[in-house]
Batch of 3 targets.
Target 1
Amino acid sequence: MNKYQHIRDAAYYANMELPKLNLVVFTFGNVSAADRELGVFAIKPSGVPYAELSPAKMVIVDFDGNIIEGDLRPSSDTKTHAVLYKHWEIGGICHTHSTYATAWAHSHRDIPIYGTTHADHNTVDIPCAPPMDDEMIKGDYEYQTGFQIMNCLNEKGFDYHEVEMILVGNHAPFTWGKTADKAVYNSAVLEAIAQMAYLTEQINPQCARLKDSLIKKHYERKHGPDSYYGQ
């Protein structure tokens, strides 16, 4: 078996979840799966419809963005993935243009923590990175997007282990996790939270943020030392 087959498979199956979860239209999205010991990741080829994908079509790239193996061009967002893998200890990244999360990104707004669904996954507002400055745009755009993401988390004092999702201003969401499957899960959760927050503000524009006691309770019942959610 090819030594990259396991991440080709992981990337393929994770990518195929995106249309099933209504997180993409056409080819507007990508997932990658990394093998940190080998220092490479598998990512969706650029512009290939999901119905035409297969594990063999996944492209193998190193953490500097160099193509290691594959007959197709990798996703146009490959350099963003490479930057994050190089600087963070993560195993999967997902990028979509899902409708509600992307609308918040276009609005340059963090997603406020209004309810317990949000608190089950984050104790803070979902951050929106500021739009990229002109010099970065003129340079290596996709490469700089990785730093745009990392800089936003650093400036807010957030740990990427705990906050596994972000909006990129004027662009769209990125999520990550220990695996490609977890990155996709986070993208689906983010889209749900974004939709709920949007509807909440339509119903009550003066809605208050979730109180701290409920944030703490819901996050810790799933992630705290005495967590009891699930089997």
Target 2
Amino acid sequence: MKIVTMESCHVPQVAALEKLCFSDPWSENSVASELSNDLSCWLVALDGDTVAGYVGSQTVLGETDMMNLAVSPEYRRKGIAKALVNALVEQLKQRESHCLTLEVRLSNEPARTLYESLGFVQIGRRPGYYHNPKEDGLILRKEWEI
């Protein structure tokens, strides 16, 4: 498994994972548009030519928002999500970002456990943030020195 910057050849697989993993997925066009966004950093975990998982973020004025993180069901529980987040943090440090913020469903215990293990702390809650089904989102944040 290797983690690389997302390229146009990865977009169809990333969009397919979006549909598989999320109730409100990004379209293929939306994912593709991130390739030309200077604020964005998207990484993919590759098993050969197969996108096993991905993470996407945007940085503004040294603060980064992680928008999407997903791992294909057949690759879960193998440390890929953790590796993707760690690789993202390393990329963000090089871009002079000092923090990473994300929202996670209140009910998503596996993701919350992962983020806690990576040093994220809850800094807030967004009532009704998620749809399909409607649910609160917890705001988590990790900071570091640059």
Target 3
Amino acid sequence: MEKKQFSGAVLTGGRSKRMGKDKASLVINGRSLLEMQLEKLRAAGIKDLMVCDAPGNGRNIPADARLVEDLLTDKGPLCAIASALSASGAECCVILSVDAAAVSAESVGKLIRTAEESSADIVILASPSGIQPLIGVYKKSLAEDALALVNSDRLAVRELFRDHPPVLLELPDDSPELLNCNTPEDLEKFTALAAERHQ
């Protein structure tokens, strides 16, 4: 069986209303959340790195990544996923939301290995209490379906799962990897968690 190829995309186009500042540029232990996510993709051996952002933001990104602007404005994460898949140079694309920076490189590797072993179009992180659709692997072939949903204003990522049921990689509910960095209080938790991991 031919080995699947993977690209990687970090989604940075959210408005960061609750944080009050751009989340991608927040710094923990000397590294921005964006750099933390890109490093996990690099550790997985991914060379085709994308930063998916809202049109016109003009974000500065590392030299080994490329900027992909959302195909439509203010259409949420499903549009960002569709944009990443459309621009992907590989059969599969690892999707990481920039504010899900507590997810470990080990879990990213497990997502990739699960996608390699599965015929499913989508593999995502989950817990007993819910799914994490912005931490996962999506096949490039889903780009057209995802964009069609966006164009019909069916903007929830879960809409894509109706015709493409995901394989779930489950973590326990109390896993710190499920923490999203949405508020200043969350940022404090992220900083403490990062300090623990480096001890």
